[in-house]
Amino acid sequence: MEQVPARVLVVFAHPDDAEFGCAGTVARWVAQGAEAFYVMCTNGDKGSEDPALTSPELARIRETEQREACRILGAKELVCLGFPDGGLEDTHDLRRELVRCIRQFQPETLITSSPYRDGIWHRDHRTAGRVALDAVYPYARDRLIYPEHERQGLKPWKVGEVLLWGSDEPDHFVDVTETYSTKVQALLAHKSQMGERPEENVAKWVRQRCEENGKRLRVPLAEAFKRLEVRR
């Protein structure tokens, strides 16, 4: 039997990353009663080839698109950390904010991008995943790390598991056959990123991947993750 977490926290670098990586899973779990919270690390202010757009304008557009995607998926809250696109670093500030979110939302499961992927993989994706793992263990667990959080009413929290999308060696698959259409709707909310033929682009890039993952689970469509249990 699939274990549906009561609360899931999704940590991602750019607007639309989470929709590609785990939107079908999130939609499935929300439909089964889970609460989903999203943390977007950058403002996505570099992801456009439109010469008429400035970075501040693009950041506003992409935040609006991400909020619409979260609405479609039923996520309860979106936290926008606002670090610059292409400039996400493994810093004290980023770790502190991710720890704050873990302690605030108290997720049983955290989903993020794999920091271990070989080949070409956006540096921000690797950084978001790596710092999220550090925030899970040991930072969010240990009360004397960022003690100001406790003074603000936030208690230490132990995440039970982490799911990494984009892994070269996935070992955990979630059937998203019934929620694939919701995943597509959430992706299409990112109009600035979908190109001139958005439905065709989604079918080409996303459905094929979900079909390949589905074969591993013997279902039509699935999302794939590397699952990590967190030391208690």
The tally of helices reads: 7
- Counting helices, strands and paired strands, the structural category is alpha/beta
For the biggest sheet, the summary is:
7 strands, mixed
Tell me what the CATH architecture is: 3-Layer(aba) Sandwich
Strand order of the largest sheet: 3-2-1-4-5-7-6
N- to C-terminal distance: 23 Å
| Computed Rg | 17 Å
Helix fraction, binned, reads 40-55%
CATH superfamily: LmbE-like
Order of helices and strands: EHEHEHEHHEEHHE
CATH topology: Rossmann fold
Low-confidence stretches: none
CATH class: Alpha Beta
Provide the residue-averaged pLDDT.
Answer: 95
Shape: globular
**Residue fraction in strands:** 15-25%
Q: Number of domains in the coordinates?
A: 1
Number of DSSP-assigned strands: 7
Describe this protein's structure.
The protein is of the alpha/beta class. It has one domain (about 5-230): Rossmann fold (3-Layer(aba) Sandwich), CATH 3.40.50. It is about 40% helix and about 20% strand. It is built from seven helices and seven strands; from the N terminus they run βαβαβαβααββααβ. It has helices at about 15-30, 55-75, 90-105, 125-140, 150, 180-190, 200-215, and strands spanning about 5-10, 35-40, 75-85, 110-115, 160-165, 170-175, 220-230. The chain has a seven-stranded mixed β-sheet, with helices on both faces. Helix 2 links the parallel strand 2 and strand 3. Helix 3 packs across helix 4 (about 125-140). The relative contact order is 0.18.
